[in-house]
């Protein structure tokens, strides 16, 4: 099966990260925290893409590495 096994969900997360404003309204977090969160979302989106490609039959050899990075763990051996 080739294509978007999860309807390209990773692209929606990536779009959110790209559109996230540096400064928010009212009780928003600092722009530094938002930037750190934006980078985390990009890592999550890349991990989601790896999973989606593998589950679609397209293949991505970086899935395990991306998951461990996303979870903040040491690489699996």
Q: Could you list some keywords that capture this structure?
A:
77 residues; 57% helix
Largest sheet: none
- Taken together, the total number of domains comes to 1
What is the distance, rounded to the nearest whole angstrom, between the alpha carbons of the first and last residues?
A: 29 Å
Low-confidence stretches: none
Helix content percent band? 55-70%
Per DSSP, what share of the residues sits in E-state strands of 2 or more residues? under 5%
The topology string of helices and strands comes to HHH
What Rg do the Cα atoms give?
Answer: 15 Å
What is the number of helices? 3
What class would the helix/strand composition place it in? mainly alpha
Name the quaternary structure.
single chain
General form: flat
The overall pLDDT, averaged over residues, is: 87
Record field, number of beta strands:
0
Describe the SSE topology:
Elements: H1 9-19, H2 31-55, H3 63-70
Helix pairs in contact: 1-2, 2-3
What does this structure look like?
- The chain has 77 residues and is mostly helical.
- It has one domain.
- It is built from three helices and no strands.
- The model has no long low-confidence stretch (mean pLDDT 87).
